[in-house]
Design goal:
By secondary structure, the protein is an all-alpha fold. It is built from 21 helices and four strands. The longest helix has 35 residues.
Amino acid sequence: MAPRKGELTEEEKELVQVISKGNVQDAAQLLGSKEVRVNCLDEHGMTPLMHSAYKGRADMCKLLLQHGADVNCNEHEHGYTALMFGCLSGKKDIVWMMLEAGADTDAVNSVGRTAAQMAAFVGQHDCVTVINNFFPREKLDYYTKPQGLSKEAKLPVKLAGPLHKIITTTNLHPLKIIFLIKENPLLLDQEALKKCSMVLDLICEKCMKQKDMNEVLAMKMHYISCIFQKCATFLQEGEDKLDTLIKNLLKGRDGDCFPVFQEKFIRESIRKFPFCEATLLQQLVRSIAPVEIGSDPTAFSVLTQAITGQVGFVDAEFCTTCGEKGADKRCSVCKLVIYCNQNCQKLHWFTHKKVCKTLKEKREKQELEAAKEKKRQEKLAEKEEKANESGLAIEETPDGESEKPKETEDQVTSESSDAAEKVDVSATTSESSADPNVSQTSDSSEK
């Protein structure tokens, strides 16, 4: 009998409390009890798995899934699923765990939003990226078995794991994908890379020809396939294990160290997408074609935004070498170029050293100008403050006009009257001296 909302046993109520506290051992003991149903529902229709996902308890989610928790239970009063609660928590590992357990990414809540749309709505763009880049392992395992009349599988079983790791990566930087290839010796073989590339092309074609067309996934498979083909070409030409290709992708032009080879490679990969009528391809071409090489936006940033769903690169730092998000190590000299680790810095130094001193001078000049501007603003603020303080002695009339203090006004009045007397005396004197008749009359009267 299916559990009903709000009908929890005392042990099940205790389980919900234990989940909130995050005690995995206590939860494991309770789940071993016959009185505890792993998919029980509280009064809101939330299962223990939903509670764990919402609280961000990855270890608790793993335990519940091992005990058979239903990842697609949709009894919540607003239609939320465990995947949606994982997105709300912002935990990428929980979102990934739900997807691997078979979570339905197309399920919608009571207002018609999918888990990815909910994550985007609350600003959890990393979770959106995980959902958009997820590819079930069983879909790849299909190519490890002979199909139809073919006696041989298109993909050796030993290559499925390494290839799946690359397919599901959220960092599409060509250097990052090459690093993943180098990590696994099985992929450092020309024939192995060609087989992987062929399978990626088949998946790309399937995504475009299926009923629910997936242009985003198709573009991603094509792009990774192009990188595999380029790696196979370089392995054929030399035995340096892709070091030459890495240097070509990192090499910057004189002046600004912009990686021209890398930009041209990504543009060419997009141009080679075999389905010319695809809407996504046309959008990418319109965004990239008018931009001169060396200007923003770069082909990599446009492609990343289209495939992973990341909204630009705001509030995050990315490694200059491999594009890894969250890089926090800066060049000790110029302090402008960022890396995720020392290895990436060493790889990039051969080209960065050409402009490092120039960037340092540029930074120092900007800092000096910023300091001058700050000082100017401080002086301006100080003047305004003094002006405000001196204005306290002035009272304002209701009309808004300033009224001078009374003592000052009396002083001005007395000074005005004295000045008037002086003016009258001087005027009389000047008139007497000017008229000769006046002087004669005064003389005769005296006589």
